[in-house]
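Translate sequence into structure tokens.
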Amino acid sequence: MALNLFDLSLKLNNFPIGKARQQILDIQNKQPKEFEDYQKNAKKEIVEFHLKHNKFYRSLRENINAHDWSTVPILKKRDLQIPLKERLCDVFKLKDVYVNKTSGSAGDPFVFAKDKFCHAMTWAVIQNRFSWFGLDFNSSKQARFYGIPLELKGYYKERIKDSFSHRYRFSVFDLSDEAFDNCVEKFKNTAFKYINGYTSPVVQFAKYLEEREIVLNSICKTLECCIVTSEMLFEDDKVLLEQQFGVPIINEYGASELDLIAFENPEGEWRLNSETLFVEILDDHDQILEHGKEGRIVITSLYNQAHPFIRYDIGDVGIIDPKSTTQHPILQKLVGRTNDIAILPSGKKAAGLTFYYITKQIIEDDGNVKEFVIEQLTKETFKISYVSQEEIPVEKKKIIKAEMIKYLEEGLNIQFERLEVIKRSASGKLKQFTSKIHK
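Result follows.
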């Protein structure tokens, strides 16, 4: 009988994973009306708990009424950029909760806390979703494309966690051909069942495989699927991954401070997590939008008693599918981040990913450019930084400039910078578009 090291590691840290898994099953087994009552009560109870035990939460607004959702304030990331001890509920001490920090890839990093049961519920949801594809954290070998701390203590801590979690980590800070050569050798000699990692390094690995005419599951016969997370997955990249890995590609959307938010099911739908979260789409005036309308994604964590994440504006923009139900909501589209907006000289606004997508269609067609990002330096000036085998030809630069002007407006100044490597955030994530101007 195999030793369930992953479950054991959670239990040794006092995270009650067994109780959490049972709670998830109980929630999932509710009939539709029962589920609606469960969610309504859970929302009310978490607000009442924080009003009673959290001075920080009480200070956000007067007259918060747990029975009237419209009185519950929207919590912004900037509201949370004060010391954690000032945001912690009075029934918890720092030593008794799970503490972590957001990656800061959105520009607003902060430290957060979860109580032990809440953190166990997070893992119970993740385990439940992975089980849709026959994956088990205790036995399924994972090839992990994530960041890793470079200082020794943090580095070895992550390696030990990886060992308990039945996974091997490939660093995303080195995406050279030499590093990928080593990846291929590891896949040849390891019975990986699935890949899990940030979208951009996984896509770079697929491009490397395409150049060498390697289909990954032909050299790693045990490979069954690939799960990408944390960064946008474009449709043409998904096609490339399917082609070069030879397995289904599964899209995950999550946030470390919350939970797994959405996970692609075997039917290809992006199922939102309704067991531990309540997800809303709001307009610019904080009004709830009907399903099918695009707006800000605002999320309530129903189980975090240590720290309030109630009507928390995560900074993303998306659409909930009109065919969603309360029990089975579906994320129709994740548009991007609210801070990824470019303001043009005319005053016109455009989603930053528009620039990235327009350029991507042209810049990657011949395989020369390995990776690129776009920065808005001023309202009229945009810089495309890229890693390539050769300089982008003048004619192709002209085409890129013409397309950006065509889709946006006249008078834009497009600059190009060729780099040896594109710097990633400390977590290893790659921010595809960044605006340096103040809105």
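Note: The mean pLDDT is 89.
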